[in-house]
Write a sequence for this structure.
């Protein structure tokens, strides 16, 4: 399927600010599952952009606005064609625990097994992961069990958390948004030594108004597979990936700092066709 995405972030400051330095992670990632046909990033006030690929393979754009300004608009336009691999069977055994536990020897897997800013290897996560997967001899079926557990254990509640909410708080309160569902699933996978990473992107639905978050787990013989704990399903052609990392802190859409007032308003709009 082919998708056009317009993602606009506008900041309105109570008084003029300056030295506004930002990093933008909004360019969809080219992969076997999607082809990026075009991408355009516009900044108002206009400024010079620099681009780099970070250690996770994400496309990052950087800019600094030194002169005083009272508004900032970051607008990303993307055209992406998705062609995902067929979903895996949810009932057939596909990966032994011996195969899964050998993965840390593969270069790059350590990052997706280690604690990060919003995900920890806690005793609580270990207890929940063991209980949710009790009796499963196949690692893939254990992952599917974790997916269903997180979907049922957490209540989706808009505005119940914020972008800096830690996985431990989500487990305690048993509620959150898609970012929190992803962090908890990653933590439970890590507790069982299953490599899992955070994915930022879009879910193309009529209600899409912001970025979405899901998880990719590594399965020997099948590579990284997308799982959406918010909707308890594997990803398909309606998922458009921007990038991935250990957790949200590695792939925020826009992040930065400036000199000036703390009082500001932010408005985000996403249009997908």
């Amino acid at each position: 399927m082919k998708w056009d995405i317009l993602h606009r972030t506008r900041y309105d400051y109570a008084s003029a600010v300056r030295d506004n330095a930002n990093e933008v992670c909004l360019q969809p990632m080219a992969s076997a599952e999607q082809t990026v046909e075009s991408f355009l990033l516009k900044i108002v006030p206009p400024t010079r952009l620099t681009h780099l690929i970070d250690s996770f393979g994400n496309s990052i754009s950087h800019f600094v606005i030194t002169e005083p300004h009272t508004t900032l608009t970051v607008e990303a336009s993307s055209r992406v064609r998705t062609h995902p691999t067929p979903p895996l069977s949810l009932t057939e055994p596909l990966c032994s625990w011996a195969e899964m536990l050998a993965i840390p020897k593969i270069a790059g897997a350590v990052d997706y097994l280690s604690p990060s800013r919003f995900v920890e290897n806690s005793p609580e996560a270990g207890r929940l992961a063991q209980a949710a997967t009790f009796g499963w001899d196949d690692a893939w079926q254990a992952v599917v069990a974790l997916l269903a557990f997180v979907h049922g254990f957490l209540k989706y509640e808009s505005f119940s958390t914020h972008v800096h909410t830690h996985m431990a708080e989500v487990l305690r309160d048993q509620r959150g948004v898609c970012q929190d569902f992803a962090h908890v699933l990653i933590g439970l996978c890590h507790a069982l030594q299953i490599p899992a990473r955070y994915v930022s992107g879009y879910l193309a639905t009529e209600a899409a108004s912001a970025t979405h978050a899901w998880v990719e787990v590594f399965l020997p013989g099948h590579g990284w597979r997308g799982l959406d704990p918010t909707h308890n399903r594997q990803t398909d052609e309606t998922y458009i990936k921007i990038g991935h990392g250990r957790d949200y802190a590695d792939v925020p859409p826009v992040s930065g700092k400036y000199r000036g007032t703390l009082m500001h308003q932010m408005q985000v709009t996403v249009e997908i066709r």
Observations:
- Residues 139-153 form the longest helix (15 residues).
- DSSP finds five helices and 14 strands in the chain.
- The mean pLDDT is 94.
- Helices lie at 97-101, 123-132, 139-153, 167-173, 178-191.
